[in-house]
Structures are given as structure tokens and as C-alpha cells.
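Deliverable D4.2, example record:
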Amino acid sequence: MVEYPWYKSYDKGVPYSLEPYPRSLYSMSLQRPREKCRSIPSCIFKDRYFSYKEASRLFEVMASALIANGVKQGDRVATMLLNTPQQLIAAFGAMRAGGIYVLFNPLYNEDELVHTLTTVDAEVIIVWTCFMPVLRRYSLVRS
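Output generated by the structure prediction step:
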């Protein structure tokens, strides 16, 4: 086993790996519950319930849209959304498309936003409409 330097800072008894848990993609983590619990809610937002099956379908739709718009494996896909189902759909869709999901804090001030956007080098940013004026003001997005 490789000894990484950060292991020295682990508390006594903290394992160095997650074994025996299976190695799998995080983006596929909803696949098993979807198959076993088709009608159980995976997400509840206000009065709207999303089953595992429905959520997984929405993630696939988002992944397909990202791929159709040029996202390739390893591309950074940033989001600047509120705490809504759209955030989950964008996150899991980006991961299913093979992208690296980057969450931007919607409370960033303009300087923090500009700095983060210019250093992250995202191929795509999915934003709530109310945040577009700031991005356009700094020419950080193409419409």
C-alpha cells in the first residue's frame, strides 16, 4: 500500500481506504436505488416529489444535452444555481457526461466570481437567469 503524506494527520482508527465498498462512479450511485425503489422519492422540493427513476431520467437528459453541446470527458462543467432540483440535475448530468462538476457559490460577489471563473476554466457554466448580467458584464459567457 502507498503511504500518502496526509495519512499522518488521520485520527487513530480512521481507515486509509473505503474498502470493502465497491469502486463505482458517483454519478451512477442512483442507478441501484432506481432499480430497487422505483417509486420512492429521491428528492422532494416544495410539493414536488421526484422518484429515483424520474431523477435518473432527468440526469440522463442533462448529460445528453451537455454532450450534444460539446462537453467531453474531463471538461469542467460549472453551475451557479440555487438550492433547487435543477442543481441536482446539472450536477449528476455533468458527471454522467464525464465532466468534472464545479459548484459556484451563488452568493459570490463580482470579484470572487470573476476570479473563480477565470481560474476554473470551465467549458460550460449553467446559471440561473438572474446571474447572467454579471457574467455578461465581464464577457465571461457566450449566449
